[in-house]
């Protein structure tokens, strides 16, 4: 009986995944492009939900931009709520592949190992993974961006806005990606307000609305009057509005979630990369790469400042952003000290991409730990 129940459970789980894997439009496999060929099918694996107001919504906007930019040449599929475990990732991807997907974008760090395995199992399918570092030279690449650029700019806004000189930061995990975010944000804060500090609370989750809001509430109770975040939901922004504080969002334009608190947000324009990649696949020029977009190519950016931002911030943000675009400003340029007051970047030196991704410390001005 237990064996029969187990088989039934597996069948039901598979059925659930198949139902959950959604095509983004009504096209079927019979749809033809203008030259009579089949449109390429592209799958997207999401850890969260497409209406989360943050991380997953930003990726889904990129998916929709891909459809619009390559109208008639591409059909997309997506799966929400994919857990960061090998079995769930592989099951979701295999269902898409069975439905004809020849390209899979895996949009969460924790999908990396499963995607690496899939790239070996399906050599004819192209796999591209967000925020990871693994790849091969045949069908497996990765992508990320210089988020330190808009993070720094958002720090300028926060540093000019705070009255208490206490700024809070809700972080997901103590990882290099987060250290880069917190440090670049803090460097931006300190560039306009040397007396301000940035206090960090970890949630140890990419997507947990309750934990994110709880962490935000703790920072507000500690006297922080501006919050920033590197986590997936709008919880910190909502918490800030409830306490008449202000917020820097992340990933997407979430003004409507907290219109009295939201000032701006570092954002991803994933459609830039998705369109570029699929175009290359269609014309036969794609090769696996470790893509790293920036403000200059439009892959990352800072949203226009809202009425909640300080008036003097726009001119300063515009000035530094223009230098970033021209290549005349590098965020991690010394002298930079860590929390212990030790020089970690010498005066005049600018860290390159490889050096940035080896950052394992928090800079002077940050209150919190790397664990």
From TrEMBL:
PROSITE patterns: PROKAR_LIPOPROTEIN. The keyword Flavoprotein does not apply. Residues 1-23 form the signal peptide. Residues 41-321 form the ABC transporter substrate-binding protein PnrA-like domain. One of its GO terms (cellular component) is plasma membrane. Coiled coil: none annotated. CDD domains: PBP1_BMP-like. Keywords: Signal. This is ABC transporter substrate-binding protein PnrA-like domain-containing protein. It comes from Peptoanaerobacter stomatis.
